[in-house]
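Quick note —
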Amino acid sequence: MGDVSTWQAVMSVGIGLGLAAAAGFRVFVPLLVLSVAARAGYLPLSAGFEWIRTTPAVLAFATATVLEVAAYYVPWLDNALDTIAAPTAVVAGVLASASVMTDLPPLVKWSVAIVGGGLAAGVVAGSTSLVRLKSTATTAGLANPVVATTELAGAVVTSLLAIVLPLVVLLFVGAVILVLWRLRRRASARQAPPPAPA
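Predicted structure written out below.
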């Protein structure tokens, strides 16, 4: 019985962290996927999060998703959105994580959601913002729609994988965060001023 409980807890953490990472690509895509999956009865929700499966919530998340996705294809508005994307993604990541961790004590659930979910969402959002800034600087924004499409695909794929194959998404999220962290570090190193001569 304990093994089943442990397994369910691990699965719920995998789902939560996967949805949180997806929020780093697009804030509302994983919330919409979560809402639809919960409404269909495919995904149980933690106590206090039952509102996520309601019709108004599904409609609100769907509307917000359409607006967010469309906004990232508007030149220069995409970069403006990035200024609020990281903190908003962190909040969405924490919310998505906590809402599906049904088999954890509240203290553990919120600790994992805030630290793990918030970190996953923040790292992905921060890294994608840097990629867009670089794209804007090097192509005058002409390549930004490609970046936006890639991010949207990342949000959708990561959200679906989180629900269908949570253990696989844990590995996927780890790999994505590692790659994005390396890209961010490389971009920061290029932007750093050269050392002063001795």
